[in-house]
UniProtKB/TrEMBL annotation, chains A, B:
Residue positions binding FAD: T177, G216
GO BP terms, alphabetized: fatty acid beta-oxidation using acyl-CoA oxidase; lipid homeostasis
Swiss-Prot/TrEMBL cofactor(s): FAD
PANTHER family: ACYL-COENZYME A OXIDASE, ELECTRON TRANSPORT OXIDOREDUCTASE
Boundaries of every Acyl-CoA oxidase C-alpha1 domain copy: 319-469
Similarity section: Belongs to the acyl-CoA oxidase family.
Annotated protein name in UniProt: Acyl-coenzyme A oxidase
Main subcellular location: other
UniProt keyword list: FAD, Fatty acid metabolism, Flavoprotein, Lipid metabolism, Oxidoreductase, Peroxisome
InterPro entries in alphabetical order: ACOX_C_alpha1, Acyl-CoA_Oxase/DH_mid-dom, Acyl-CoA_Oxase/DH_mid-dom_sf, Acyl-CoA_oxidase, Acyl-CoA_oxidase_C, AcylCo_DH-like_C, AcylCoA_DH/oxidase_NM_dom_sf
Locations listed in the record: Peroxisome
Domain Acyl-CoA oxidase/dehydrogenase middle: 173-283
GO cellular-component term (any): peroxisome
C-alpha cells in the first residue's frame, strides 16, 4: 500500500529534537567507518547476533531461506485486512515455495530430526522471524508433526513416504486432539478396530466428543496421522496408537468415503492456518498403516516391545519434543520482533519536554519505560543462552528424557513470557502499537496459542515437577542427581548457607551483582521448593489416601517448583556462556544482561525469597535499586542490543520497528488511503 | 452458522461424569422451585445483580436497549470472519438503530451528562455487554466525545446542534490526537488562525506530524470537533481550543475543499470502528464555530474567563472524564463476559480423573485454576462497589476535581486488569479459548486499547500521584485532606501502629480476615508511599534543580503510589457497601469476596509489605494459605457468582459461555462447515 499522506509542509519542530538513543547506533556506525581498514572487525551487534545462534548457524540454510523470502513476491504482502480464506491460500503458497526450495533440494530432510537437528533449529530460527506465524505453524505441522510421526513412530515401510512429505507432494496432518480431549490424550476416544477377515483397521469416531479437532492442514492434507485406540478383535483395548489414514482422493480436494471434514473457523490469530475437524465413519485402512515402532499387529496378533501401556504411550508422546522446541525457539524470535519494534519506537517517539516550548524527549528516557523493556531484552538473551545449550543437547541426543523435561519447562516459560511481554509492549507503543502497521497485534494474537498447543503450559510444568520428584525419591535411595539436576544434590548445605545471617544481610553492589549470589538464590529456591513439594504431596497423600487428589492439592507449589527449576537452568547456562566468552566487549555487555536477568527473576519472586528469610529487607531494597540502575545503563545501548537479536531487517515489516528512516514517514507509507464510497453508503441517513 | 457436526453416535461416557460445579446452579434452581409460593423471593444471583447496579438501575433504558438488541436482526450476527469494511457498515447500522431507539425517543439526552448521568451509566452498562466493543466505542465517539465537546465546551449557539447529534442526523467525530502527539495534547500542532477581514478561523495542518490520527467516525462524520492552537492575527498563540469544522458536504460522502481524510487501516481489534486520519489545508470556518466556553473571540479580540493557560487547558480537558468513566464501566462489563465464559467452561470441561477409567473432573477442581479465576471474580465485585460509589459522585457532581482523579485512577486500574485477565482467561480455556466461537479473542483485542485511549494509563496514574502530592503539600500548610483522601490524614499514627510488633506477627484467621486488618494494610501502604514519594521527588529536585527531570526520576514510586491509593479507595468502598448490606445471604458472600480481594491485593504487593516490615513472614505465609482456602470455598459457588454479574445471557454469544446446554453441542452449533473447494484450489500440487 503506498503512502496516501504527503508532507506538503515542513517537518515538525518537535521531531527535530535530538534522538539521544539513536546516537548509540550512530556511534556504532561510526566505529565501522573508523575500522574500515580492519575489515574483519565486527560491531557489537554482530557479535551478539553470532553469539546467539551458536551451534545452529547453518549458514547455507539461513542464506537460502533469506534468498527465497526476501525475493519472492508472495512473502511481501503488506495486506493486513485479509480474509482467512485468502490468508490460507497465501500461506499455502509460501509453504510450498519453502518446501520446494529447501526440502526438495535436500538442504534439510525429516531424517535430520535424528541425523542433524541443528539444521532444523536454523530453519525454525529464520522462518519464525516472518511476521505471519501461520507460515511457521503450517510448515511444522506437515514436516515435523505429521512427518515426524511417520519417521519416529513408523518403521521402514512408512519411511519411504518421507521424500514425498518433505517435498510437499504429499501433504499430511497430525490428528491427535479431539473435541473432548486435549491435555488428557491418553483418554482419546477415536477407535481403530482390527478386522482379522481383511487384515484391516476400521477407524471410527464413536461420539461427538471424539471428533478430531484443531487439525492443522485439514483443508489441504491428503493423509492424516490419526491417534486412535487400537482395539483387537477380541475386544482388548491396547490404548492409543498412531495410524496413517488417507482422507482425500489422490492429489485432489474430494474426501474419501466415510471421512467428514470441516473448518474449526475463525480464531484469535493464526488466520493463515486451516485448522479443521475430522470425523471417521467406518474408514478401513490396511493393517500396515499402523505406525508400528512401539506396537504392531502381525498375523492378527498384537505385540509391543514395551509391555507397560503407560511407558509405551510415553514413548509415543516423546516425539512431541520437536513441537516444544519449535515453540521455545520460535516464540523467542517473535518476542524479539516485538521488542525490536517497541524499542525502536521508544527511541524515536518523543513526548513531553521540560517546558511546553523545549524539545520533547524519547519515551525510552522515562524510567517506567526502561523498567518495562530492559528486563525483556535481558530475558531474551537469557533464553538465547539456554537455547544454545538445548540445541547442543538436542544435537548430541544424550539422555533424551532429561532433554524432554528441559524442553517442556522451557516451552512453558518462554511461551508465557512471550505473550505477556507482547501484551505489555503493545501498551508501551500506545495507539501506534494498536495499529495494524505496528504488526504487534498480529504477532501477539498468533503466538499466544503457543501457551496451549504442543502441551498446555500448566501440564508441561507438572511433567517437570513430576520428574524432579521422581529423581528426588531416587536420590533418597542412593542414586545421585545427574545432568541438569546435579545442583539439587547440594541442597542441604545450600539450605544452611542460605541461612547465614551475614549473607542474608549483605547488600553491597559487588555481592549482589556476583554470579555466585544470583546462582545461590536460584539454587536455594529450587532445592527448598523441591523438599517442600515432596513434603506437601506426601502430607496430602496421608490425608486423602489417593495420589491423584494428593497431587492436585499440591499443584500450586509443584508449578512453582517447575518454574523455579527451569529458571535456575536458564540462569546457570547464561552464566556459563558469559564466563567462557573471551571477547571483552561482548562478555562485558552479556554480563550486565545476565545480572539484570538474575536480579529481575529474583525480584519477581520476592514473595518466596523474603518469606523463606533468604533475603532481608535491606537486601531486597538494594536489589530493586540495582535493577533500576542496570535498566537505565543498558537503555543507553538499547538500539545496539535489539540489533544484536539478529532478526533479519526485511522481515520486521513494522512501521514502528524500522531501524532507518523517519518514524512518521514510515507510518504514512503503510497507512491506508481514502475511505471508499461504496463501503460507506450507509452513512447517508 | 448452523451446526455441521452431527452426533450420529452416543454421548461420550467421559462427558456423563457428574458436573459438580453445575450442581451449585442446580441447587439455586431448586431453591426457586421450593420458593415458588413466595414469588418475590430473589435468588442469590438476582441479589448480586441488583446490588451491582445501584444508583444506575434506570430500568426503562435497560429494558428498551434489551428489547432493541435482542430482537433486531442486525445485533445477531454470528459472523466471525468478516472484513473490516463489512464490520464497519454493520456497526454503523447498529449505532443508528440504537441512536434512533434511545436518543431520538428522548430516553437519554446528551444534556444528561449534567442533568442525570445515571442514565448514561445504565446505557454504557448494557451496550458494553455486546460482544463487539466497536459498537460501544462508536456510540461514545459520536454522543459523548463529539457531543460532549459541543455541550461542555460550547455555548448556547452550539447547543442547538445537540438534538441532531444525539439522533444520529448529524454524525460527528472528535479530532484531538495527532500523528505526533497523543499523550502530550498541550503540544498539538494543528492551527486555527484568526482572519479579522472575514471574522473566520483558518484551520491548517502545518506538518505531517500534525495530521489528526485515530479519529473514530472519520468515514461517516459530517463535522469534526477539532482541537487546534488558537492564533490571533497578531501572531499570539493562545494554545489549544476546540473548533467545529464541517468536513463533508451535507449528508454526503464527498469531502469539503481543503479536507483530506483517509483510513488508519487495520487494527489489533475494534475492527468495526472507522478510525481515520484528517488533514486540513486552509479550511475556513466562521469564528462562531469556536466552542467558546473557556475562550472566545468577539470583535476580533480574544478573551477567556480563565487567565492561566494551563488551568484553562485543564478545564477543557476535564470533559474527558466521560470517556474515562465509560472505560471503567465498559471494560469491567467486558471482563465479566470473559470471566463468565471461562468459569462456565471450567465447570463443564472435564479433563483427567483418578485413574484412566474413572470419570474425569471439571478443570475448575484444580487449585491452580481456582487461584487464577476466583480473584478475578472477587476483583470484579470490588470494581462494582467502586463503580456504585463513582456513579453516585458523578450523579451528585460535588467536588468534580476529586471525581476526576478517582475516575483517572480507576480507568487505569480496571483497563489494565481487564486486558491482563482476558489474556489469562484465554489460556485457561485452552484451545477452545483460542477459537473464534469462544469470543475471548475478539473481546480481548478490542478492549485492550482501553489502556491507551482516553489517556494512557501511565499518564493517568501520574495525574493521580500529582494530585496526591499537591494535597500533601497543602496538608503541610494547614489544609486537611478531604473526601476520598481523608484517610491519608491519619498517616503518622498509622505508620506507628503499623510497626506494632504484635500486629505485624499476628497471623490468625480472625485477624487476617477482618476488614480492619485489610484496610490498615491498604492505608498504611498509601500513606507510606505518599511520604516516600514526596521525599523522592524533593531529593531528585535537589540533585537536578529541574522539576521535569526530578519528577521523571521518581516515576516508579509515583506510579506505585497512584495504584496503591486507587486500590485503597476500591477496598474502602467495597467494605462500606458490604457493611451496610442488610440481606444476610448477600452480605455473607460479599464479605468473602471482599476478604479475598483484599488479601489478593496485599499478596500482589508483598514486595512492599514485607520490605516495609508491615508483615512478618509467618503472617505472609498465612495470607497465602487463606487465599487458597477462600478460592477453593468460593469456587463451589462460581456458577452463582458469575450469574450474579448480571450480564444479559443473550449477549454472551460464546459457545463456551452458555449457562445451559451441552458444552460440545454448543460448540458444534457455532463451528464452521466443510471447507469450500474454490478457496483451496492451491492444494492441488
Amino acid at each position: 500500500m503506498t503512502s496516501q499522506i504527503s508532507e506538503p509542509y515542513k517537518i515538525g519542530d518537535g521531531y527535530k529534537a535530538m534522538l539521544q538513543f539513536q546516537s548509540t547506533n550512530v556511534n556504532e556506525n561510526q566505529q565501522i567507518l573508523n575500522d574500515q581498514n580492519s575489515k574483519n572487525k565486527l560491531t557489537l551487534s554482530d557479535k551478539l547476533k553470532n553469539w546467539s545462534i551458536q551451534g545452529f548457524e547453518n549458514h547455507n540454510i539461513r542464506d537460502e531461506l533469506n534468498r527465497i523470502m526476501s525475493t519472492s513476491e508472495i512473502f511481501k504482502s503488506n495486506e493486513l485486512d485479509i480474509t482467512k480464506e485468502a490468508n490460507r491460500v497465501l500461506v499455502l503458497k509460501q509453504v510450498l515455495e519453502i518446501t520446494r526450495g529447501i526440502f526438495e533440494k535436500g538442504l534439510i530432510q525429516i531424517t535430520d530430526l535424528r541425523d542433524d537437528p541443528s539444521k532444523i533449529l536454523a530453519f525454525i530460527d529464520i522462518v519464525s522471524q516472518f511476521d505471519d506465524p501461520s507460515l511457521m505453524t503450517k510448515l511444522i505441522v506437515n514436516n515435523f508433526l505429521f512427518g515426524a510421526a511417520v519417521f519416529n513412530l513408523g518403521t521402514d515401510r512408512h519411511h519411504k513416504l518421507l521424500p514425498d512429505i518433505q517435498s510437499g507432494r504429499l501433504l499430511g496432518c497430525f490428528a491427535m486432539t479431539e473435541l473432548g480431549h486435549g491435555s488428557n490424550v491418553r483418554s482419546l476416544e477415536t477407535t481403530a478396530t482390527y478386522d482379522p477377515k481383511t487384515d484391516e483397521f476400521i477407524i471410527q469416531t464413536p461420539y461427538r466428543t471424539s471428533t478430531k479437532w484443531w487439525i492443522g492442514n485439514a483443508a489441504h492434507a491428503q493423509i492424516a496421522s490419526v491417534f486412535a485406540r487400537l482395539i483387537m478383535d477380541d475386544g482388548k483395548d491396547h490404548e492409543v496408537h498412531c495410524f496413517l489414514v488417507p482422507i482425500r482422493k489422490s492429489n485432489g480436494f474430494d474426501l474419501l468415503p466415510g471421512v467428514k471434514i470441516g473448518d474449526v473457523g475463525a480464531k484469535f490469530g493464526l488466520h493463515g492456518v486451516d485448522n479443521g475437524w475430522i470425523q471417521f465413519d467406518k474408514v478401513r485402512i490396511p493393517s500396515s498403516n499402523l505406525l508400528d515402532r512401539f506396537g504392531s499387529v502381525e498375523n492378527g496378533v498384537y505385540s509391543s516391545p514395551i509391555k507397560n501401556p503407560s511407558r509405551r504411550f510415553a514413548n509415543i508422546l516423546a516425539q512431541m519434543i520437536t513441537g516444544r522446541i519449535t515453540i521455545s525457539f520460535g516464540s523467542t524470535r517473535t518476542l524479539k520482533s516485538g521488542i525490536i519494534i517497541a524499542t525502536r519506537y521508544a527511541c524515536k517517539r518523543l513526548q513531553f519536554g521540560p517546558t511546553s516550548t523545549s524539545p520533547e524527549i524519547p519515551i525510552l528516557s522515562y524510567p517506567t519505560h526502561q523498567l518495562a523493556i530492559m528486563p525483556m531484552i535481558a530475558s531474551t538473551y537469557a533464553f538465547d543462552a539456554i537455547k544454545i545449550y538445548l540445541g547442543k543437547r538436542f544435537q548430541e541426543r544424550t539422555d533424551e528424557a532429561e532433554i524432554h523435561v528441559l524442553a517442556s519447562g522451557l516451552k512453558a516459560i518462554t511461551s508465557q513470557f512471550t505473550t505477556v511481554s507482547l501484551v505489555e509492549l503493545r501498551k508501551l507503543c500506545g495507539g501506534h502499537g494498536y495499529a495494524g502497521y505496528s504488526r504487534l497485534g498480529k504477532i501477539l494474537s498468533s503466538i499466544d496459542v503457543g501457551r496451549t498447543f504442543e502441551g498446555d503450559n500448566t501440564l508441561l510444568l507438572q511433567q517437570v515437577a513430576k520428574d524432579l520428584l521422581t529423581q528426588f525419591k531416587k536420590e533418597y535411595s542412593g542414586n545421585k542427581f545427574t545432568g541438569t539436576l546435579k545442583y539439587l544434590g547440594k541442597n542441604t548445605s545450600l539450605l544452611l548457607s542460605g541461612m547465614n545471617p551475614i549473607t542474608t544481610m549483605r547488600s553491597d553492589d559487588t555481592h549482589l551483582l556476583s554470579f555466585q549470589f544470583l546462582l545461590d538464590c536460584m539454587e536455594f529456591r529450587s532445592s527448598k521448593l523441591l523438599i517442600q513439594s515432596a513434603q506437601t504431596v506426601s502430607k496430602n497423600y496421608k490425608k486423602t489416601k489417593e495420589s491423584f487428589t494428593a497431587w492436585n492439592q499440591s499443584l500450586e507449589i509443584l508449578i512453582h517448583l517447575a518454574k523455579a527449576h527451569t529458571e535456575t537452568i536458564i540462569l546457570q547456562k547464561f552464566i556459563e556462556k558469559v564466563q567462557i566468552e573471551k571477547d571483552l566487549e561482548l562478555s562485558s555487555i552479556l554480563k550486565k544482561l545476565c545480572q539484570l536477568y538474575g536480579l529481575y527473576i529474583i525480584r519477581e519472586d520476592f514473595e518466596f525469597f523474603r518469606n523463606s528469610n533468604y533475603l532481608k529487607k535491606g537486601k531486597a531494597k538494594a536489589i530493586i535499586k540495582l535493577i533500576g540502575q542496570l535498566c537505565s545503563d543498558l537503555s543507553q545501548q538499547a538500539m545496539v542490543l535489539v540489533k544484536g537479536f539478529g532478526n533479519e531487517e526485511y522481515m520486521i515489516n513494522s512501521a514502528l520497528g524500522m531501524e532507518e528512516g523517519d518514524l512518521y514517514e514510515n507510518i504514512c507509507k503503510q497507512v491506508g488511503g481514502p475511505f471508499t464510497k461504496d463501503n460507506y453508503i450507509q452513512s447517508k441517513l
